[in-house]
């Protein structure tokens, strides 16, 4: 079968035999024809003692299961069901890490899971959140976030090298080793050992001697046990508690964390940590969440994917797809998935989109090319050019969403506090401001363009390569325009009407730092918008008097030197002892899209849970790349 152009990945070629899925490529069934669910329980659930171990988890703990070969997801659903049926503390998290080189299409997945009526509720939730078939890592939040599925579409060895996790239990699934030997290479066994710890267990269908010997050499104590059905034997294993040096003190979940900045980044991180059981103090100089650049009435959920499918494009795509899933519970309550048109505006953009479509294949559920007639029909207003249609994108109410996110029992607010000092004292951080001090184990700076100023309070003799970029939006009265029914992006963006207003913008002012609204900026927005959509206005475009009377808003984006976001720890930053200090900023004009994924990633790191970003993308957001030592003056 011909290889599909990146980023799309080749789906499984399924042959349905008597209602049971079989891989044409490997000539093997995905599960036992007689009773696949009971087989999964016999081979994986019971040998790994999952129900017993789930019940013994302490408060706010996480349990990690990893497997080779996601297949139909039956193993995952069986583990999830066992998790639900065990007396598990409500403040614990189940992580399931899986790789799949040939993922099932949504249609085949739906058909396969229909065979298990008792898993219907879980299966339906998985199907609703099942990611598009594009390469790389997909983090899927299920069961209200209590179950986190990390699904890697690609080669299993690539997955093991790229993913950061430590498994409590392994499901060594996959096809028969003789039919698929690449899944059982020594490298794979080494990766299993690398992602394990004392007490990690495993179970596998196979009882092949070379597999048992390789796992024994990898540190597992292996045992042959009774197999399922006609298969007489299978293998189980465990890494003895004495196999490693005593672990270092557990520094996973912080006892306390202060997040400075209650915009979209800080609010998302606070909510993510709070839902994992962490007590959070949310600090901001304003009187509520959702001010500064996150205070706009509307914002488009949008990225501009690169012509080349490189790491930058992969990060943008991962963020876009995760944000679609993350915001889904807020539909019609801060999130409006109307669809979004990226116009092929002007000769340069038309040529860029042609090259983009020629070099890449994306599943249509991610994006699809449309001509001018289709674009006009989908947006509801006449447009002069086609473009790329993102069916699952749309717009948000950032300010309202921030307030909703910040409302959680585990989030304490400290609003109206201007931070004046940050210092490390007796293994804790001290935040000074507004006449009192706050002591906390860790700090996350989510303060946008104010981040360099706050970071300088720590006494670092260097600086971060961040810069503020002013952006002004304009509020257009609905009665003056033909309001679109979907977001339109080009030289400007235009959102559908909300409460009688359509937001358009934003300017990109590199050298202007005034926080006041400018008539010139409104004029610039209207000129660009009219050129982009000449038939937008119901009558004539606004007169000069109307332009001067327009309302809008000014915000400042925080951008890095390489226009990539920042999310990570500042530990051991070129000699500085900054343990427990984190940065989450540099999101530019795409903060609404990047922030959910990067908040998830930073929460993973702060709690010591499996990371949702592969190592290659983690490097791209590392804050160390933005730090530069100050030059020493020569006297």
Automatic annotation (TrEMBL):
Residues 1-240 are annotated as: tRNA (mnm(5)s(2)U34)-methyltransferase. Keywords: Cytoplasm, FAD, Flavoprotein, Methyltransferase, Multifunctional enzyme, Oxidoreductase, S-adenosyl-L-methionine, Transferase, tRNA processing. Residues 260-635 are annotated as: FAD-dependent cmnm(5)s(2)U34 oxidoreductase. One of its GO terms (molecular function) is flavin adenine dinucleotide binding. GO terms for biological process: methylation; tRNA wobble base modification. Transmembrane segments: none annotated. The keyword Chloroplast does not apply. It is found in: Cytoplasm. The keyword rRNA-binding does not apply. Its EC number is 2.1.1.61, 1.5.-.-. Residues 117-238 form the MnmC-like methyltransferase domain. Its cofactor is FAD. It catalyses: 5-aminomethyl-2-thiouridine(34) in tRNA + S-adenosyl-L-methionine = 5-methylaminomethyl-2-thiouridine(34) in tRNA + S-adenosyl-L-homocysteine + H(+). It comes from the Bacteria. Residues 257-604 form the FAD dependent oxidoreductase domain. Catalyzes the last two steps in the biosynthesis of 5-methylaminomethyl-2-thiouridine (mnm(5)s(2)U) at the wobble position (U34) in tRNA. Catalyzes the FAD-dependent demodification of cmnm(5)s(2)U34 to nm(5)s(2)U34, followed by the transfer of a methyl group from S-adenosyl-L-methionine to nm(5)s(2)U34, to form mnm(5)s(2)U34. In the N-terminal section; belongs to the methyltransferase superfamily. tRNA (mnm(5)s(2)U34)-methyltransferase family. HAMAP family: MnmC. This is tRNA 5-methylaminomethyl-2-thiouridine biosynthesis bifunctional protein MnmC.
């Amino acid at each position: 079968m011909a290889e599909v152009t990146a980023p799309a990945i080749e789906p499984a070629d399924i042959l349905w035999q008597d209602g049971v899925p079989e891989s044409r490529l490997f000539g093997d069934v995905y599960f036992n024809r007689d009773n696949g669910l009971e087989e999964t329980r016999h081979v994986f659930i019971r040998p790994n003692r999952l129900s017993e171990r789930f019940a013994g988890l302490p408060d706010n703990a996480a349990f990690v299961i990893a497997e080779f070969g996601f297949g139909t997801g039956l193993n995952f659903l069986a583990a999830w069901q066992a998790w639900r049926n065990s007396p598990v503390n409500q403040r614990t998290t189940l992580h399931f890490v899986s790789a799949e080189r040939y993922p099932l299409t949504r249609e085949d997945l739906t058909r396969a899971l229909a065979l298990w009526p008792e898993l219907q509720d879980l299966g339906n939730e998985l199907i609703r959140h099942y990611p598009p078939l594009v390469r790389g890592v997909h983090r899927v939040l299920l069961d209200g976030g209590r179950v986190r599925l990390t699904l890697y579409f690609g080669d299993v060895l690539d997955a093991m090298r790229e993913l950061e996790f430590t498994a409590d239990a392994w499901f060594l699934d996959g096809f028969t080793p003789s039919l698929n030997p690449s899944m059982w290479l020594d490298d794979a066994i080494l990766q299993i050992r690398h992602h394990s710890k004392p007490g990690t267990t495993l179970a596998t269908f196979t009882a092949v001697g070379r597999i048992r010997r390789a796992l024994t050499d990898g540190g597992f104590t292996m045992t042959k046990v009774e197999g399922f059905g006609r298969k007489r034997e299978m293998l189980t294993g465990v890494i003895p508690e004495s196999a490693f040096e005593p672990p270092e003190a557990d520094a996973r979940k912080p006892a306390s964390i202060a997040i400075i900045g209650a915009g979209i980044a800080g609010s998302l991180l606070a909510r993510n940590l709070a839902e994992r059981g962490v007590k959070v103090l949310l600090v901001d100089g304003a009187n509520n969440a959702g001010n500064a650049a996150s205070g706009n009435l509307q914002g488009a959920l949008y990225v501009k994917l690169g012509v080349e499918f490189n790491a930058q494009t992969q990060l943008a795509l991962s963020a876009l797809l995760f944000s679609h899933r993350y915001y889904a519970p807020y539909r019609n309550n801060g999130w409006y998935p109307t669809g979004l048109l990226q116009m092929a505006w002007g000769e340069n953009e038309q040529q860029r989109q042609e090259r983009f479509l020629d070099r890449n294949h994306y599943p249509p559920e991610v994006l699809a090319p449309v001509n001018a007639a289709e674009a006009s029909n989908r947006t509801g207003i006449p447009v002069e050019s086609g473009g790329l249609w993102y069916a699952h994108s749309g717009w948000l109410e950032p300010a309202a969403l921030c307030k909703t996110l910040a409302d959680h029992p585990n989030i304490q607010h400290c609003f109206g506090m201007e931070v004046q000092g940050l210092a490390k004292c007796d293994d804790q951080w001290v935040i000074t401001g507004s006449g009192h001090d706050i002591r906390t184990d860790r700090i996350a700076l989510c303060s946008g363009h104010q981040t360099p100023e706050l970071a300088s309070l720590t006494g670092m003799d260097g600086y971060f390569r961040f810069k503020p970029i002013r952006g002004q939006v304009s509020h257009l009265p609905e009665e003056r325009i033909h309001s679109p029914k979907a977001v339109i992006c080009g030289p400007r963006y235009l959102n559908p009407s909300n409460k009688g207003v359509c937001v358009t913008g934003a300017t990109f002012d590199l050298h202007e730092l005034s926080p006041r609204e400018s008539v010139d900026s409104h004029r610039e927005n209207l000129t660009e918008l009219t050129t982009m959509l000449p038939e937008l206005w119901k009558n004539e475009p606004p007169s000069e008097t109307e332009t001067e009377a327009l309302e809008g808003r000014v915000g400042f984006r925080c951008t890095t030197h390489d226009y990539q976001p920042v999310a990570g720890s500042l530990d051991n930053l070129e000699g500085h002892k900054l343990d427990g200090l984190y940065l989450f900023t540099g999101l530019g004009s795409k903060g609404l899209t990047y922030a959910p994924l990067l908040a998830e990633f930073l929460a993973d790191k702060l709690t010591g849970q499996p990371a949702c970003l592969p190592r290659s993308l983690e490097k791209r957001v590392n804050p160390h790349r933005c730090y530069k030592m100050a030059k020493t003056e020569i006297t």
